[in-house]
Amino acid sequence: MSDAQIAELETLRRQLQQLHELFAAVVDETRPTPDNPGIVPWPELLSKFNVLASKYEILSRTVGKKSAALLKELVVVPQTQPGGLHEQNIMAVLLRTKLAPEIEKEEEAIWAQIEAGAQQDTSHESLAIAAIDAFRGLRKSHDDRVQALLAEAPHQDGAQPPPAAQASLEEVLAFMSLGVQAQRA
Predict the structure, then answer these.
(1) According to the lineage, what is the superkingdom (predicted)?
(2) Tens digit of each residue's pLDDT (9 = 90 or more) over 103-128
(3) pLDDT tens, 28-40?
(4) What is d(CA 144, CA 139) in angstroms, rounded to the nearest whole number?
């Protein structure tokens, strides 16, 4: 590894360490203590978060553009050998690249639920379309029955009934709500 690459990695390590220290400081300052039981004012908390976000953005941009090729060539190796079995298990979990089997099963179950939900959404859509079609059919049969009743009803004075006006349910409702007769196209 060249001196330039080592210097670049050292810069990244320093930036990451600064971000870690700043994050720890913000957490410590915002945590209520017996000395300071009050809540941090919102503007102060927001400014601290903005500083954290900007430091993270700078580090992310640096890693993403400048150091991506260099980091792809490196392998992480712990500086000290883990002592006990517990520490070795922690290292195995931290260095794992494949999901734990339990998490894989849970993830598959979640995806199955999502896919089943997507299929249900289409069935709901078809049910809604069927309900609209049924409503339109019932409305048409209602209009037909009303027209038939109007045609058959005898008038009280014995005069000829006026020709049945063709009025749909929408027109009747428009007349009832607006007081005007809807114009036909």
Answers:
(1) Eukaryota
(2) 888 888 888 887 777 666 666 777 78
(3) 887 777 776 767 7
(4) 9
